[in-house]
Amino acid sequence: MYKDKPHFPASRRRGLLQRKRVQLLLGLVGIFILWWTGFLPFGSKVQYYNPAEHQHIFFGHNDWSAQREAVKEVFLTTWEGYEKYAWGLDEYHPLSRKGKNMVEGGMGWIIVDALDTAIMMNLTSQVATARAWISTSLSYNADHDVNTFETTIRMLGGLLSAYYLSTSFPELAPQRDDDFNQPGEDLYIEKATDLADRLLGAYDSPSGIPYSSINLNTSQGLINHLDGGASSTAEAATLQLEMKYLSKVTGEPVYWDRAELVIKAIDAQQREDGLLPIFIYPATGEFRGENIRLGSRGDSYYEYLIKQYLQTGGVETLYRDMWDEALEGVKKHLITYSSKASLTVLAERPSGLGHVLTPKMDHLVCFMPGTIALAVTGGETVEKAKRRLGTYWTKKHDENLALAEELMKTCWGMYKVTPTGLAPEIAYFQVDNPPRQWEGHLDPNWTPPVSANLSDDVNADWRDDYNIHDMDGHNLQRPETVESLFYMWRITKDPKYREWGWEMFEAFREHTKVVDEVQGKVYAYSSLDTVMNNPVREHKRRDNMESFWMAETLKYFYLLFSGDDFFPLDRVVFNTEAHPLPVFDIRGSKVFKTGWERSKRGTATSKLSEHDAAGDNSKDDFVQFAGRRIGEGVRFDKDGKPINTNSNSDHDHEHDDTIEHGHIEESGQGKPPTEHSVLESAEQHAERRKKGEDSDEAAPLQNSRAGRPKPQDRLAKEDADDAAADDDDQDITGRGGKSH
Ligand code: DMJ
């Protein structure tokens, strides 16, 4: 008898045993299924995004109108939910179906930010409701601090683009201004001018670098109560497109002048290879620390260099030079390659150039592929730009385009690598030791590594190159990757960018949706705590929807699936919050021209080499004036002298990633649900009051509005000044409407 297989005679007992075994087996299978689908607390960690679910027969078709409509539907659902539960309020908490104001009376945060998307989608009645709210309920009198940058890019940018669209594209969501009780055609520009007048106070610093906050009621700029009083570099240097366009429209150069001086002050620092540390002191215009990155606090400075050049019709070449210099700096110092798949990574140098490289990319960095491509062709298709440039199309154009394509793939991989198909806030990368770097500046024959396609295989090597930390797995429905896909599609015409975009859109629509349990209907879309669980369970959602979901993310999806003649990229520039502004020509203008020249190169030693020579990179972090440490509680008079030295060393650190400073959230740990702390918290406010920082004596600035005409007077004056402004009225979009 074959003994390895014990044989037992049949019996009733055995039948019972067999039934129990089957039950046990079924139970185990059930538990396994629950574990696999993540329904158990110790659920499977091996979850993969399933590409098979995202194959579509229309890939390969040219008609993307159904996808465009699908985006519009999601926008409408979002809008209607917000209208029902939180209309007029600055924050929207979709899970609790509530909203909240950031200042008394509100700032129109969501309405103003989303308005131009509604116009572009031709949502006439929604636009009418928003317009009525802006006309009757929006004012900027609240006696509270707001973030200078956020208020500029979202509110001023939103009002300006609403003005541009409503005057230049009257067929989009047409409004009847001449009806009795209607707000009138100047509504948006009046509000914009009122807001910008108040924002001007932020620029009243000794260096011209704006303070990070502003009290809109008093127009007093307020020094950052964190980060040693420094402003974020990106925040200080991402205000120009809006202020320059407002100058163009109103004929008042003051906005233009103040905003462009920021870039002059930055250029005067002569930083090595055009790469800037992420903090800058309004008191002196000097940088704080050496942390260099194109993610949070660094990003949009670079974006606005090239966009300023494009906005004024390619006349202001110094911005193009600064962009070119910075891009070469990026290649030389920040580009590295992942170990297995040679993915191109735009890394960070937290201790400065020449120091350790951190292979980390914030999702925010993903604006770069699109912006690089935009800089290569000026918004035209590659084909058209090549035709136009002829022999002036160089190897450098190809090199930069290839860099954009590779970075685009890395950003797409951030989505594709997770179980939900949505990107985390931050990804780290496996790189060699020492990391491979760009060598094009050393060897003209060197060619950068090219990565293979990101295969759908769940065991593919490229997946091992991504490393997502637990605390970085959240998703705020950010726009940067779809923004870049939009530019890449328009510029290269490679349909894969639309296909990736559709997969990404489906992932957003599926995983960020909020469903009314009773009606079984989707009524909102929210941020997520983690993209690493599929399905996303309720407690993994965040009770918040950022305003850029409607202002940017959905707008870029809509544009990605629209035709090329819908907001052509050589006719408009999108501000960093996706608000389109027209390109205008300043050639021949006496009023609008670059009011500064670049400082002579090579005369200043870079901070880095000074530090290196001294062999110490840490101590100088807080030095603005020789021998003086600047910390929390320090304020300055108009000559840059500190007038309150209540230092609180708690905040004397270079940077705390767990604190929400402004527009950026860097780590999921201990974060409030909203991203845009345009405001200091009640506790911070009370704390500052206790320290006497809110008293008049401590205020660093005078009301900068004094002595300037009110917006209404300005508009009246505009008529009178028409002749003077005439030579500046060449809106090269040529779409008619009110001349500006
Ligand atoms: C937006 O407010 C802007 O795009 C800004 O430049 C960066 N952060 C958010 C979106 O992520």
Describe this structure in words.
The chain is mainly alpha-helical and 740 residues long. The chain has a domain at 10-43. It contains 21 helices and 19 strands. The chain has helices at 12-36, 65-86, 109-120, 124-137, 148-168, 187-199, 233-236, 240-250, 253-267, 299-311, 317-334, 368-377, 382-389, 395-416, 480-492, 496-511, 548-560, 607-614, 682-690, 711-720, 722-726, and strands at 91-93, 98-100, 145-147, 213-215, 220-222, 231-232, 277-280, 287-292, 335-337, 344-346, 360-362, 426-429, 466-467, 513-516, 521-525, 572-574, 580-582, 632-636, 642-648. It has a three-stranded antiparallel sheet with strand order 3-4-5. A three-stranded antiparallel sheet has the order 6-7-8. Strands 11-12-13 form a three-stranded antiparallel sheet, with no helix packed on it. Strand 18 (632-636) and strand 19 form a beta hairpin. Helix 3 (109-120) runs parallel beside helix 5 (148-168), helix 10 runs antiparallel to helix 11 and helix 12 runs parallel beside helix 15. The longest helix has 25 residues, at 12-36. The radius of gyration is 27 Å and the shape is globular. The termini are far apart. The structure holds 1-deoxymannojirimycin. 1-deoxymannojirimycin (DMJ) binds at residues 300, 364, 478-479, 548, 552, 576-577, 663. Residues 300, 364, 478-479, 548, 552, 576-577, 663 line the site of 1-deoxymannojirimycin.
